[in-house]
Every structure is written in C-alpha cells, then in structure tokens.
Amino acid sequence: MSYFEGRSGERYDRRAARLNRPLFRKICREIADAAPRDGAVLDAGTGSGHLLLELARLRPDLRLSGMDLSKDMIAIGRRHVRDASLEDRVALDVADVAALPYPDGAFDLVVSTLSMHHWDRVDRAVAEFARVLKPEAPLWIYDFRFVSARGLAAAARERFPGRPIRRTLVRALLPFPAFAGYAI
C-alpha cells in the first residue's frame, strides 16, 4: 500500500479523480437506478471516496460507507467528504476487504471499482461481501479488463449459490472497453 501513502496518495487522488470520473459516473448512475430508497451502499476499496461523493449527489437518500486499506487515502477521502459537507451521509473507514468492520446484513449493495487487482485473497473478500450484504442484495465488482476473474467466479459460486455471475465489458473514457464489470 505504500504507493497510496503520503505525497503519492495526493498525486494518485488528483489523477484518479480526473481519469476515473467517466467510469465512476457511469457506475453511480447504475447504482442510483438499482439501490432501494434509503438503502445502504458500501464502496469497497474506495480510495479517496470520489465514487461515493458522486453517488451522494445523485441519491441524497442513500447511506454511504466506504473502506480502504490505505489510511492516507481514507484521510484524503474524509477531507473531501468534509469539504462537501457530507459527514452525516458518508462514512469512511480504514479496513481490509478480508475483514470488514460492519455487521452481518448491513448493506443493500456492495460495489468495488478498480480495487480487486490489489486483493491478496479474493475468496476472503467475497466471503466478507456475502456476510455484510442483505439476502439477495447485489455485489458489483469493476476492474481492468485484463484482471483474471477466475478466483472471483469460484468464490462467488461458493458464497452466492444459484446466483448468476454476469460479466460485461464497460466503455468509459476510452473508445474501447478497458474495464469489466461483474454483477453477482
């Protein structure tokens, strides 16, 4: 995680805010359409929270949580939340996807964007997502198209038996689909 700490984290935040904006907007529109009224959404691997800020703008009724392993990225995200006066609606925590600090069944939707390629144990992350999701609530994972999803598919079949795993290619920013989305 050292790449996301200190000045590198600040540089990453500025670059990611600019480069990821089209992808985040697209994902936020999808979440805004799918999340139940007054629902709770978790952004796993939120970085500095840009996706949550956009989602808060689109859906003021949602309770939004984000977590990231990098304490510096969460500190930057908390600053963004404070600057946007969203402290009452957006909570950010330093945490590992393999050991989430949330109660069972706390969320109506879990999303992760451009984070899966950093996870040491995809199976543990998926197990934790299954635990914190309400029954039948969706898990959406977006990452670079070239990232292997074999571990994700196996873990999802085990933790979400009988539910389909849909892979879609996502166009945002670039004229070709650089990202893949997985809906479980």
Automatic annotation (TrEMBL):
<protein>
    <recommendedName>
        <fullName>Methyltransferase domain-containing protein</fullName>
    </recommendedName>
</protein>
<dbReference type="GO" id="GO:0008168">
    <property type="term" value="F:methyltransferase activity"/>
</dbReference>
<dbReference type="InterPro" id="IPR041698">
    <property type="entry name" value="Methyltransf_25"/>
</dbReference>
<dbReference type="Pfam" id="PF13649">
    <property type="entry name" value="Methyltransf_25"/>
</dbReference>
<feature type="domain" description="Methyltransferase">
    <location>
        <begin position="41"/>
        <end position="135"/>
    </location>
</feature>
<dbReference type="InterPro" id="IPR029063">
    <property type="entry name" value="SAM-dependent_MTases_sf"/>
</dbReference>
